[in-house]
Design brief:
44% of the residues lie in helices and 15% in strands. It has 17 helices and twelve strands. Helix 8 links the parallel strand 4 and strand 5. The longest helix is centred in the middle third of the chain and has 17 residues. The protein is globular. The model has no long low-confidence stretch (mean pLDDT 97).
Length: 401
C-alpha cells in the first residue's frame, strides 16, 4: 500500500503554530481526542487495518532541513527553539487507537502529551479521506487535468471579484495530488495578470514551500477547548488570547472566536485584545449576522471596523465567497479561507464530513484524571462532545441556541 503522508510539513500551519503555543504555555498538558464522522460512513471491510498501517508509516516521517529553512524564512513569528523540538519529533502510533466495528464504522481516539498529539489531527483526517476514495475505487475517476481547469476558473472568479483568499483544504482533500493541483492552478491564475483580488497562500506548509507561497493559519477550536477543560469555559477565550499573546507577541493576530459562541467571546474581548488582534475568523453561524455582531463590537470600543480583517471560513464555495465579498467590503477587510470546495470537488464524488475533536485535557500528567470539554457551535446540531458535557457548558455559559 502506498504511503499517503510522505512529508512532515504536509500539514496545516495552524497545527504547528498551536503546537508552538502549547509547548510555550502548557508543555506538560495531556489530552484526549475523538474522531467524529458526521455522515456515519460505512467504511470498506479492512479499512481500519489499512488506516493503522498508514498511521504506523507516519513514524518514518521526519522534518527536513529544507522544510525548517522554509519555515524560518516564511514563519518569522515562530521562535527558533521550536525547530529544535520539531527536529527531534517522532510520531508514535501508540498514541492512536483505531477500531472498525462490525457495521463498518470507524472509532478513533488519540491520547498523550498535547504538544505531541496535536500534530496528528490533520494528517490522520487527510489519510482517512484519501484512503476511503482509494479503497472504494472512486479515485479511478479523478481527472486531474480537468480539475486544474475547473480550479483555474474558480480562481478567476474569486480574483476578479476582489476576494483575498487562501486554500484551507488539507483535512478533507480527495487526495494529496488534488490539493497539489489546486495550489498550482490558483498560483498560475493569480500570476496570469493583475487582479483586484489576491491569493494569499495555502494552509498546507509543504505545498507553500513547493510553490513558494505563504503558509497561512493561526489556531483551531481545540486551543480554546483545552483551555476550557483546564481552567473553565467562562474565561477560556480570555486565557487563550493571553497565552497566544505570550507566544506570538501580536503576530498571527486573527482570533477564532466562536468556540463558545459570540456572547461569551464578546464579554472577554476587551479593548486591549481588540487592538492587539488584527481581526477575527467566522467559522460558524450566519456569516452576515456574525459580521454585524463583530462590526458593532468594534464600534462600541471606538475602533473603526474597516481597519480590521474578518476571515470567513464556514463551508464556503466560490459563489458564496464572491457574494460575501461584495457585502462585507463596506464594513471590514474581508478575506476567505476555502477548504473542501477547493480540494474535494470532483464531479460525482461526495466529500467526507469528518472531524477530530478534543474531548478532555489536564494541565499535567501528574493529575490522576481528565477534565471534559466540548465545542458549542453557532450552527445548530454541530455541537461536539459528550451530551452531558455540552449541556453543562450550555448551562454554565447561558448559551442561547
Amino acid at each position: 500500500m502506498k504511503q499517503i503522508i510522505k512529508h512532515f510539513t504536509d500539514d496545516d500551519l495552524y497545527k504547528f503554530s498551536m503546537c508552538c503555543a502549547v509547548l510555550d504555555n502548557y508543555p506538560r498538558a495531556q489530552v484526549q481526542y475523538e474522531f467524529v464522522d458526521r455522515n456515519n460512513t460505512v467504511y470498506p471491510a479492512g479499512f481500519g487495518e489499512d488506516l493503522k498501517e498508514q498511521i504506523k508509516m507516519l513514524e518514518s516521517v521526519t522534518i527536513t532541513d529544507e522544510e525548517i529553512a522554509f519555515m524560518k524564512k516564511k514563519c518569522y513569528y515562530i521562535p527558533h527553539y521550536f525547530y529544535t523540538y520539531l527536529k527531534g519529533f517522532r510520531y508514535n502510533s501508540q498514541w492512536v487507537k483505531v477500531n472498525q466495528d462490525a457495521e463498518g464504522h470507524l472509532h478513533i481516539a488519540f491520547e498523550g502529551n498535547w504538544c505531541d498529539t496535536i500534530l496528528l489531527e490533520v494528517k490522520v483526517l487527510a489519510i482517512i479521506s484519501e484512503l476511503f476514495y482509494i479503497r472504494s475505487g472512486q479515485d479511478k475517476s479523478f481527472d486531474y487535468d480537468a480539475y486544474y481547469k475547473k480550479t483555474y476558473e474558480k480562481g478567476k472568479k474569486l480574483l476578479a471579484a476582489g476576494c483575498v483568499f487562501s486554500d484551507f483544504g488539507t483535512r478533507r482533500r480527495a487526495s494529496f495530488e488534488a490539493q497539489d493541483v489546486v495550489v498550482r492552478a490558483m498560483k498560475d491564475c493569480a500570476n496570469s495578470q493583475q487582479w483586484p483580488g489576491k491569493l494569499v497562500g495555502t494552509s498546507n506548509v509543504y505545498l507553500a514551500m513547493k510553490y513558494d507561497l505563504t503558509p497561512v493559519g493561526t489556531m483551531a477550536h481545540e486551543f480554546m477547548c483545552a483551555t476550557a477543560a483546564m481552567f473553565g469555559p467562562q474565561m477560556a477565550n480570555n486565557i487563550a488570547m493571553n497565552a497566544w499573546r505570550n507566544t506570538f507577541r501580536g503576530a498571527l493576530g486573527t482570533f477564532l472566536y466562536d468556540t463558545y459562541g459570540w456572547d461569551n467571546f464578546s464579554l472577554n474581548f476587551s479593548e486591549d485584545f481588540a487592538n492587539l488582534f488584527k481581526g477575527l475568523r467566522v467559522d460558524s453561524g450566519d456569516n452576515k449576522e456574525q459580521l454585524h455582531k463583530i462590526v458593532d463590537k468594534y464600534k462600541s470600543l471606538g475602533i473603526d471596523p474597516k481597519t480590521k480583517q474578518v476571515i470567513f471560513s464556514n463551508a464556503l464555495d466560490t459563489d458564496g465567497a464572491v457574494e460575501l465579498q461584495n457585502y462585507a467590503k463596506d464594513y471590514v477587510l474581508p478575506s476567505f479561507g476555502i477548504g473542501t470546495h477547493f480540494t474535494n470537488d470532483f464531479d460525482g464524488v461526495k466529500p467526507m464530513n469528518i472531524v477530530i475533536k478534543l474531548l478532555a485535557a489536564k494541565i499535567t500528567e501528574s493529575w490522576p484524571y481528565y477534565f471534559d470539554t466540548c465545542k458549542l457551535s453557532e450552527d445548530k446540531g454541530k455541537h461536539t462532545g459528550k451530551p452531558e458535557v455540552i449541556k453543562r457548558f450550555i448551562d454554565t455559559l447561558h448559551f442561547v441556541e
